[in-house]
Amino acid sequence: EVQKILGEGVFGLVYEVVNKKRERLAAKRASENFVQSIGRQIVSAMCHLDVIGVFHLDLKPENIYFVDDGKFELTPLSSGHLSIVLQNTRIQIGDFGCSKFHPEDGGEPVPKIVQTQNYRSPEVFIDVWSFGAVMSEMYTGELLFYGSEDEHSAANQFNMMQDIVGQYMNREMWKKAKRL
User: Fold this and answer.
1) Which of 38, 55, 79, 126 could lock 26 by a disulfide, CB 3.0 to 4.6 Å apart?
2) Any idea of the CA torsion for 24, 1, 40, 126, to the nearest 10 degrees?
3) Is 28 annotated in some ligand binding site?
4) Which domain holds residue 80?
5) Which regions of the chain are under pLDDT 50?
6) 111: how many CB neighbours lie within 10 A of its CB?
7) Which residues are registered as beta bridge partners of 9?
């Protein structure tokens, strides 16, 4: 459900689509065409950020805004919820609070732990990994990697990534990782 208008964005009105508790609509999966359309726009935005030398560092669904130039159709579901089908929808990437400029040659590297845990890559390859996690979530309606609040959460998340992706670190990879 669209909860409220957040305000005027660069491209028009911006709507809040998902609340902070990550409650989802009854119809969880987005259509393949919709995911592709949104994915192309996110990649375009990421390319623009790369050209101007910016790492977003916190790409996740809550920071992808739908702007008011598309059409939508509300369809009642048997659960009593409404399904929203968006057409010709444009997105805007927001919340640049964690963003950093690319380091100059010899400059300070990007901080290691910056992203929201569910979208953080094992080597913090930043926005490309997060993009894949967002696209997976849009298509399946489920988080690709669930985080936790415990003291071993980074190690647990890394193990979960290995289980899901199906690639385990061999001895040579561990040796290289220890040198970092």
Assistant:
1) 79
2) -50
3) yes
4) 4-106
5) 1-27
6) 12
7) 12
Strand partners, 87: 71
In a domain, 115, yes or no: no
The number of distinct structural domains making up the chain is 1
Residue range 87-110, pLDDT digits in tens:
778 888 988 888 878 777 655 555
Secondary structure of residue 99 in the 3-state scheme? coil
Tell me the residue type at 7. Answer: G
- The whole-angstrom separation of Cα 146 and Cα 157 is 7
Per-residue model confidence as pLDDT tens digits over 111-135: 555 556 566 655 555 677 778 888 8
| Residues labelled catalytic | 58
Instruction: State which amino acid sits at residue 50.
Output: D
What does the DSSP 8-state code read for residue 53? Answer: T
171 within some domain: no
Residue 101 is assigned to a structural domain of this protein: yes
Query: Tokens 């300070």 appear where?
Result: 108
Rounded to the nearest angstrom, the gap between the alpha carbon of residue 52 and the centroid of all alpha carbons in its chain is 20
Distance CA 154, CA 160 (A): 10
How does 6-35 read in b/e, with b if 16+ C-beta sit within 10 Å? eeeeeeeebbbbeeeeeeebeeeebeeebb
The encoded tokens of residue 96 equal 């640049």
